[in-house]
Amino acid sequence: MGGPDSRELLAHGAPPWPFSGPERHPGQRCSGTGSDSAPAGPAVGQPFSCAALPPIISPGRSRLSPKIIATLAAFIRRRLLSAMASPGSRRFAPLRGTPDLSPFPGAPPLKGIIFDMDGTLCEPQTYMFREMRSVLGIPQSVDILEHIDKLPPHQQPPAHEAIRAIERKAMASQTPQPGLHTLMSYLEAYQVPKAICTRNFDVPVQHLISKFLPNSQFYPVITRDFRPPKPHPAGIMHIAQSWGLIDGSGAVDTSGLIMVGDSLDDLTAGRLAGAATVLLLNDVNKELATHENTDLVITQLDELIHILENGFQGRVIEPGRLPL
Question: What are the start and end residues of every segment in region (Disordered) (predicted)?
């Protein structure tokens, strides 16, 4: 799904991570309707497999305080200024081999990979978005979730259910991306942490995992109920915190992560969070191959294996260039 221009995020506040409402907490399973829940997931850092349902992060909404808004806006400004002041490319050491033989001496190790779902783990079902906009009566230029959020309160539940019905119908024809199983087996062999950050609701995510990746481990799984959704970086920051990635100053550290996706929302969220980004190319996103927010481009998921084995090197960011 499309999202707002990322520069708007400088003025768009949101609660700090981890998010939790009065009845929903990170690690609990919450449905798209918010009507059911399951016991909390395992301790932070422990992987999930389909046998134990991945935690669907689904926080409740809350009124934002000026302090929260200022804190998150300041964080994003720091990310942008840091990227502008620190030219170069994102690098990670090879997963296989010895550090002495690395083509990138001194490159840090990869700490984890975050995946989008629709168009990334499964093949794109872009027709869903046309149907959603049609049922909501909005043009292509309007973000679907933002439109629903701006509706009067009594109109929001039926609007959400209308787009969920489209997603439920579409999930019956989900098709895994070529190279999906090969890549997941490789990452699990090297014990690379994996998470999902998607703008879908939880049912299609659970369907994909149970049908195509029953033995794969993802923790955490963040759906659109997590606020704010992509292209905001909060979901990626929450994942990093869940994995215990904290720097010496006590701040969440996303510098060891890769965000893999097929949309500008994915790339923008990754860049704003401070992660490296990988675009999975398809027929409708070719213009993103040269976008400032794209570090590397692949045409099939298992192409990432060769990149990780030999060392990851992203695009060079010019000094003073705004990475948006």
Answer: 1-43
